[in-house]
Write a structure and sequence with these properties.
- Strands 2, 5, 6, 8, 9, 10 and 12 form a 7-stranded mixed beta sheet that branches. Strands 1-13-7-11-14 form a 5-stranded antiparallel beta sheet, with no helix packed on it.
- The model has no long low-confidence stretch (mean pLDDT about 85).
- It has 2 helices and 14 strands; from the N terminus they run αββββββββββββββα.
- β3 and β4 form a beta hairpin.
- The protein has about 240 residues and is mainly beta.
- The termini are far apart.
Amino acid sequence: PEGTLLDMPKIVGMLNGLSSLAKYGLSSCDSGFGATRCSERLNLPSTHGSLTYNKTSYDDEFLYETFEGPSLVGGFDNIWSGRHYTQFHGIATEDPHDASNHVFKPMVSNHAEFFSQPVTWSENTVVKFQYLGTMIQSGGCIGYTTTEALYSETLVFCDYPTSQAQNVMVSNNEWISCQFEVPIGMDQFRIVLGDERITGEAYFDNIQIGLGSGTHCHSNETPVDIETKTPPGSVG
């Protein structure tokens, strides 16, 4: 008799509710269990509660990104979010200079659209990364924002002159390594990536948090050491 309660509409409704709970938290989005009007965003916990587990304080901490992903054939080592907590615009794809390596290619937009998980600021912490622009002034930009503000950013490097960025990085179709400091006073921040021009294609790789000082790209006078990191798929 109990089985008669499990007709198809109820089963589908339960699965929709569980899927929504895992995706948005307790809300009405995608036929969720919540009673309020759907206003949630991906990767933004619902104010009415969310589905979690007994995680450690380091689970959501951004340390590095190889863009190899768990499959090791291109993907993301971390959870990234789009502007306003929506889906991001970009793909993990083959390195145009090395098909065995995978990198991130942002889609062209007027703003940077790709936001990392939070990073904890500490003294002598810098953000290191590699960048490739296939043409002069391809449009790639990188910067930071606060953990809550996924709608604005402070750009530190762009590969073309702009009042929005403090520094210009020059690739000329070669991979370059750069780093930047985040101002004192931000307990946590997010890294932001984007491509703001249609001139050429922009690629990022090996974004990592490390020790150092100064905001510059690699040269004999100002070296930038990019460490070799193990993608999560290699150990799992």
